[in-house]
Amino acid sequence: MDFVTVVVPALAAVIGAVVVFAVWVATRKRIASNTVGRAEEQASRLKRESERDASTRAKEAKEQAHTLLQASERQAQTRSDELASIERQFAQKTQELTDHDREATLTDARLQEREQQVTELEQTLAADRERCEELTREQQQALQRVSGLSADEAKELVIKQIEQDARRDAANLVKRLETEARETAAEKAKQIITQAIQRTAPEHAIETTVSVVDLPSDDLKGRIIGREGRNIRALEQATGVELIVDDTPGAIILSSFDPFRRAIAKQAIELLVADGRIHPARIEEVVERVKSELDERATKEGEAAAFELGLFDMDPEIHRLMGRLKFRTSYGQNVLSHSIEVAYLAGIMAKELDLDAHTTIRGAFVHDIGKAIDRDLQGTHLTLGIDFLQQHGESKAVVDAMAAHHMDIDWPSLESMLVQAADAISAARPGARRDILESYVKRLEKLEGIADSFDGVSKAYALQAGREIRIMVESEKVSDEEAVWLSKDIAKRVEHELQYPGQIKVTVIRETRAVDYAR
pLDDT tens, 445-454? Predict the structure, then answer.
């Protein structure tokens, strides 16, 4: 019983161990089998992938090798073409050098031949020169025997004859040059003046003696007039301008010969209307303020005009007076605009003639500065302007150029002549001044009518804006001497019957024509 009790558990333990071992071995075999299977499958997959990669790489290598081969072949072909081109160029250059060498050989041969000819010619000339010298000595000796004069005496006689001929030729040349100079000078002057006029295009500001002030409503007319007219009297007394309040709707008219006064009155009324307070005390206050503002504005206008002309160093008082000329007219022409135009014209002509353009422009710009003060002081605008410029540091050259613009004195310089010419051009051109604008056509018609009224005149033309009258006469009725007297008679009649600035040139042309026909 003890044996069974002992053996059976032991045997069970052994059998359990064997079973466990058998199970473990079976499990290990199964795991090993699975592992080997997976390894074989992975190896097979790797083998297939390797075969595919090898095939792909072999194909790519083959394509790359083919591409490189084609590129090498193209490069080799390009190099071959370049070498062929170089060979052709080399052959061409070789041929050219061969041709040049052949030409050089021919040229050298020709030069040697010409050198030989020149040598022979020099020898011949030397022999001829010796023969000529010998003949000259023989002729001189023969002349001395015949004339009884020595060589020095004959030389002096010849020199005198040559000198007389030279003097005569020189006199003829001088006379011809003087004639040409007179002709070309007139033509050159016309060219310069025409170019100067074309290069200046100022606006001609034509003003009248009235200004219009627009009102928001007609009710303001009564307030401007004021109780018993005290406001309108205050305005007229403060500004020196006549106010015309009539039936014109929405406007009143300011009348005065002085544009500066009209400008003050217009601006003052506009400020009073905008403010709404209109009474004598307020009127005087506003008018004084407007006067001060317009003085400042005039100074700025004069300064701007000077800067426009390149005049940067003028006295501020000159700027102020030149700005005042913006509110001054002469025959309806704005004097400041006229002064700027004259300065441009004179400056252009001075530059064309290589004169002092700065002095010319400066003198032309201030030539009418006296007109800004001639209503306040005694004297003409010329004398007042001269005194003012001298007091404010202008040079003598500028004052002289300004002083001669009305030809009251002899021209002290060429610059002064240009200032006078530019002033006349600006004043006389059609449309620049009101009296010329209105009477221009009538004056030209009357000018031609005066010329046509004389006996023997066939045609008459007014030219150069009425500055010249050109008259054609009938050669059968008027002789050359009578043509001279005719021009004088027409000029005298024009002086008596017409009014005009500057002068009018009267040209009488008489020509004789002989006409026949070849049949």
Answer: 788 888 888 8
Edge-to-edge strand list for the sheet holding 457-463: 457-463, 468-473, 505-509
The answer to whether the CB of 336 falls within 8 A of the CB of 322 is yes
- The CATH number given to whatever domain includes residue 406 is 1.10.3210
280 SS3 class: helix
* 227 lies in the same domain as 312: yes
Q: Which residues pair with 377 in a beta bridge?
A: none
Question: Does 418 share its domain with 446?
Answer: no
Closest CA to 262 of 270, 273, 31: 270
What CATH number is associated with residue 479? 3.30.300.20
Query: Within this chain, do residues 340 and 241 fall inside the same structural domain, yes or no?
Result: yes
Residues 424 and 348 in one domain: yes
Whether the Cβ atoms of residue 447 and residue 498 lie closer than 8 Å to each other: yes
> Does 117 map to a domain?
no
Q: Among 394, 428, 462, where does a domain finish?
A: 428
- 352 and 470, same domain (yes or no): no
Phi, psi of 410 (to 5 degrees): -65, 145
Instruction: Give the whole-angstrom CA distance, residue 452 versus residue 484.
Output: 16
**Cα separation, 58 vs 69, whole angstroms:** 16
> Could you say which residues of the chain have pLDDT below 70?
1-4, 6-7, 143-151, 154, 171, 177-178, 180-210, 240, 247-248, 256-258, 331-332, 374-376, 408-409, 428-442, 463-465, 501, 513
Cα–Cα distance for residue pair 152/150, rounded to 1 Å? 6
Question: Which tokens hold the place of 79?
Answer: 């190099």
The pLDDT, as a whole number, for residue 436 is: 46
- What is the pLDDT at residue 369? 86
Q: Which domain holds residue 265?
A: 210-428
Same domain, 252 and 326: yes
As for how many domains the chain has, the answer is 2
Tokens of 95: 């041929």
* Per-residue burial over 224-257, b = 16 or more CB atoms within 10 Å of its CB, e = otherwise: bbbeeeebbebbbebbebbbebeeeeeebebebe
* Domain stop point among 428, 459, 476: 428
Kindly report the average pLDDT of the chain as a whole number: 79
Do residue 416 and residue 501 come from a single domain? no
Listed in sequence order, the residues at least 6 apart from 513 whose beta carbon sits closer than 8 Å to its beta carbon are 475
Number of helices (H) and strands (E) in the chain: give both, helices first.
14, 8
Q: Is there a single domain that holds both residue 381 and residue 448?
A: no
Q: What's the per-residue H, E or C state across 83-150? A: HHHHHHHHHHHHHHHHHHHHHHHHHHHHHHHHHHHHHHHHHHHHHHHHHHHHHHHHHHHHHHHHHCCC
Q: Tell me the three-class secondary structure of 174-197, residue by residue.
A: HHHHHHHHHHHHHHHHHHHHHHHH
Let me know if residue 314 belongs to a domain.
yes
